[in-house]
Design goal:
By secondary structure, the protein is of the alpha+beta class. Among the domains are: about 50-105, no CATH class; about 200-350 and about 370-460, DD-peptidase/beta-lactamase superfamily (Beta-lactamase, 3-Layer(aba) Sandwich), CATH 3.40.710.10. The protein has 16 helices and 16 strands. Helix 9 packs across helix 15 (about 375-395), helix 10 (about 255-265) packs across helix 15 (about 375-395) and helix 11 packs across helix 13. The longest helix is centred in the N-terminal third of the chain and has 17 residues, at about 115-130. The model is unreliable at about 455-460 (pLDDT under 50). It binds zinc ion (ZN). The site of zinc ion has 8 residues, from helix 11. Zinc ion binds near residues 245, 247, 252, 265 and 266.
Length: about 450
């Protein structure tokens, strides 16, 4: 100490074990004045890594710094207690004056929508999938109740220990941590804390064919089972540009809409996009909530990246129709799937459903915020039925679970142009006749043996 102050805080957030040692040392050495140990409180997270990228953590003054802790800081923070006493200029108590004690008030409790069992299961299998498939950029699993928008699970890999948020979880970085520049350390920590499902965008690929199918059905342009309505010759010519089907080497031939979705045939969806037209297509993007943030209660939500409507020509519309050359957030895609699962009506996703006043015990429920009817119930049911066929007999066969009627759609896309990186994903609903869950699973850049073709990679795990 070389400062001239009456009171100086040496260290905060010390565990009791250590202060016990200090107390013992003071006793042994007969030190009775000069060192003061004040009781303090500190956040403790009993499930350490569980939902870490959602919950976030607090700083040295218990202020929320990330996630739920940050966005609901005001509700969670209580009022600090105080001891008011009178001292002389040197800081010595004037005992005769007495002291006033102002009691601390606890913060409120939040009731999250997350289901601990579902969240744990998602984290377990996401970790396995990311390790098995050697995903260099991690992964996400999101599950919502489509009727309420309640997020039941939002799993990220990698995650971190909420009780030690400044400890890096990457073994390679751990070894060189002490030699790293502070800016590199800060970047690595930001990356580890990041909630990619909300703060980052990705190219959805073929899962987006659900949006094109929904819009085309709603516009009455097609129906699910018109035998031979479309024809895949392996490629399609759009304004002088040839766009290939992924199975150009053995074209799909005559297809109904259902078959095209089951086979994930590109030319069929490109053709539908042209029939819908740019203006109508963008109307549906807006209705599905793809041109704005979902408003989920988390900090740092990103928005989608689409070309301006006025800049979209036939080729651009073609690529959008099968899910390429634009980016959305995983939470936006989850909202799309939830809308289809909820009879065509959109609901705002949320992570907190109620708050409980710590003094009175009174519970205040947050309202479910319903959006518009994006597509009719009839259209939604048709899409769900086709999603069922994708899992029963199409590219999503690995998602079958006996006793459940599951619907889904797979997707693979490039992560950026010419990066050589891929994103592989699956969106699904269960049960298809009255869905209680909507799910999206994303693996970022799987480099393992399974390759990046969703049907295999993802659903093996
Ligand atoms: Zn095809």
């Amino acid at each position: 100490m070389n400062k001239k102050t009456s009171i100086e805080t040496i260290v905060k957030k010390v565990d009791k074990e250590q202060t016990d040692k200090l107390r013992m040392w003071m006793e042994e050495n007969n030190i009775t004045t000069g060192i003061n140990i004040d009781e303090d409180s500190k956040r403790y997270y009993p499930y350490s890594t569980l939902a870490s990228n959602v919950i976030g953590f607090t700083g040295s003054d218990n202020q929320g710094l990330d996630g739920i802790e940050s966005i609901y800081d005001e509700l969670l923070s209580g009022t600090k207690g105080k001891i008011l006493k009178i001292t002389d200029a040197r800081g010595t108590d004037l005992q005769s004056e007495g002291e006033d004690y102002v009691k601390a008030v606890d913060g409120n409790d939040l009731i999250l929508t997350l289901d601990m069992n579902i969240q744990s299961i998602c984290e377990k299998y996401l970790t396995e999938a990311c390790i098995d498939n050697e995903c260099t950029d991690g992964g996400n699993i999101l599950i919502a109740n489509p009727k309420t928008g309640d997020i039941l699970a939002l799993a990220s890999y990698p995650n971190y220990d909420l009780n030690n948020p400044y400890e890096i979880n990457d073994e390679n970085l751990k070894n060189i941590w002490d030699t790293m520049e502070s800016s590199d350390k800060s970047n690595a920590l930001q990356q580890m804390w990041r909630n990619k499902a909300v703060s980052d965008t990705y190219e959805p690929g073929s899962t987006f064919k659900l949006v094109t199918a929904s819009s085309a059905l709603e516009e009455g342009i097609t129906d699910t089972d018109n035998s031979g309505e479309f024809n895949c010759s392996g490629s399609i010519n759009i304004a002088g540009t040839t766009i290939r089907c992924w199975r150009y080497y053995r074209p799909h031939g005559a297809q109904s809409l259902r078959q095209a979705l089951m086979n994930s045939c590109n030319p069929v969806f490109i053709g539908l996009g042209q029939k819908i037209g740019v203006e109508k297509y963008y109307d549906y993007l807006e209705k599905f909530g793809l041109l704005s943030r979902t408003g989920i209660d988390l900090p740092g939500e990103a928005n989608s990246i689409f070309l301006k409507e006025s800049k979209v020509g036939p080729v651009e519309l073609a690529t959008i129709s099968f899910g390429q050359r634009f980016e959305i957030t995983p939470i936006q895609m989850l909202k799309v799937v939830s809308t289809i699962a909820n009879k065509g009506k959109s609901v705002k996703p949320r992570l907190v459903k109620a708050t409980v006043n710590s003094t009175t015990g009174e519970r205040t429920d947050f309202e479910v915020i319903e959006g518009e009817q994006v597509i009719s119930e009839e259209t939604a049911n048709k899409v769900l039925d086709m999603m069922k066929s994708v899992v029963a007999e199409g590219t999503g066969k690995n998602a079958q679970v006996q006793g459940y009627s599951i619907g889904g759609k797979t997707g693979t896309s490039e992560d950026g142009v010419n990066t050589g990186k891929y994103v592989t994903s699956f969106v699904g609903v269960a049960n298809t006749d009255d869905p209680e869950i909507a799910i999206i699973i994303i693996l970022y850049n799987p480099t393992g043996e399974g390759g990046h073709h969703t049907g295999k990679t993802l659903l093996q795990s």
